[in-house]
C-alpha cells in the first residue's frame, strides 16, 4: 500500500512510498556529506518499509517519529521497544534492505524518505523525529544526525557511531 492512499490500522504493516524529497537527491547527499563519491541511482518506489502504528494513535494528535536503521536487511525492532514507543507517542518506520551490505547513500536515502513520507502521512511534531539504529545502523544514524540535523533532531545510535565525514587519523 502507498502512504498517500492508505488508511492505517493500528499495528505493524508494510508500506511503499512513491515520492522522495529533494533532501535525498544525489547532489544534496554529496554536498551534505562533502563526499567525492557519487550516490548513484535510487528509486524509493522499489523500496519497502515497516510501519508500526501504536493502538493509541489518533489522527490529529501530534506524535513523534522513530526511524530505525538495522544492521541487516530486516526492519524488525526488538519486541521490548513497542511498549516504550507507544508510551512516548512515537510512530515507527523502518526500511527493509537497509543492512550493512547496502550502499551507504541508499541507507541515508531510506531514512530521509521515511522521515519525509512519515511527515506527509501523519500529524507529526518535527521536533520529535528520532533516527536510530544498531551497530552499522547506528553508524548511519549518527552520520545523519549531523549532516541532516534539520530533519533528525533526535539521534539514538546503539553500539556504533561514526563522524558524518571521513577524517584523517
Please render the helix and strand layout as text.
Layout: E1 11-15, H1 26-32, E2 49-53, E3 63-69, H2 81-87, E4 90-95, H3 104-121, E5 124-134, H4 136-147, E6 154-158
Parallel strand pairs: 3-4, 3-5, 5-6
Antiparallel strand pairs: 1-2, 2-4
In short:
With 169 residues, this protein is of the alpha/beta class.
Rounded mean pLDDT is 92
Structural class of the helix and strand makeup? alpha/beta
- Helix count, per DSSP? 4
% residues in beta strands: 15-25%
pLDDT < 50 stretches: 1-5
Shape designation: globular
Rg calc:
15 Å
Helix content: 25-40%
Largest sheet: 6 strands, mixed
How are the strands ordered across the major sheet?
A: 1-2-4-3-5-6
Which labels suit this protein?
single chain, 169 residues, alpha/beta, six-stranded mixed beta sheet, 4 helices, 6 strands, 23% strand, globular, disordered N terminus
Describe this structure in words.
The protein has 169 residues and is of the alpha/beta class. The protein is built from four helices and six strands, in the order E-H-E-E-H-E-H-E-H-E. Helix 2 links the parallel strand 3 and strand 4 (90-95). The chain is globular and about 45 Å long.
